[in-house]
Amino acid sequence: MNLSMFKPDAGRLIHQEVVQNRELAVRELDGFRWFHLGGKSVQSLIKLNQPEQLVSPVYQSMLLFLLWKGENLEVLNLGMGGGGFERALMGFPRIKVTSVEQNAQIAAMARSYFLLPDSVLVYIQSAQQFIEHNHCQYDIVLCDIFIEHNHCQCINDLCFYQNLAKRMKKSGVALLNLFVENEKQLLDILQAVRDVFSYSALIEFSHYKNIVLIVSDLPIPEKEQLAVCNKHGNNQTGIDFDFIISHLFHLQKN
Q1: 216 DSSP β-pair partners
Q2: pTM
Q3: Residues 157, 192: contact at Cβ < 8 Å?
Q4: 3-state DSSP: the chain helix, strand, coil percent, rounded to 5?
């Protein structure tokens, strides 16, 4: 989908407030609702007649774990935003989601305007605070912690990945949405990851600068294995995982 149609002045303004000196605006057009936070980038997007459907290919790719990890899962979502993952995973009754959002106003907005299920428990903390002080472990960690095109500084820090590993079960997988400005920044992140995790892979996109980074201490399935899983009924989401699999690149094992 071409997200350029969802501009800060497009459609109908249905909510506006100031969040940490940034203007938050919720807008609606042609059955879609989205919000901006202090800029032009779409922070979250919902299709109102199919709220469980993830619209962005970037976020769709972060559900790739469903092809090989099964359904009895504890999922940690760092950077809840509009609650897209929470809605998408509501159709999987054996998946329990723990959500972290550092701003209480955004969490409240997600409940009021983005159909965040009432059953979702949201911790109002930064991602780095949560993984440093919480003692639970999770099968899956989803991480999407940036505003506009700036992700949190912690994404560049070795200690973030060390704490992330502590919150993951031995068989755990983490999927991180990155927006890197240059090759050096990406190489620095990959070096920090390689110091902590045994296996990693990247998903790249033709029309977005985002990169989804997958890390684990167990092997990440090869493309061929994922394609078989996708073909034989493991995909219950309606997402075109074949396209995503074709853009998956495994990095050399440590």
Answers
A1: 173, 199
A2: 0.94
A3: yes
A4: 30, 30, 40
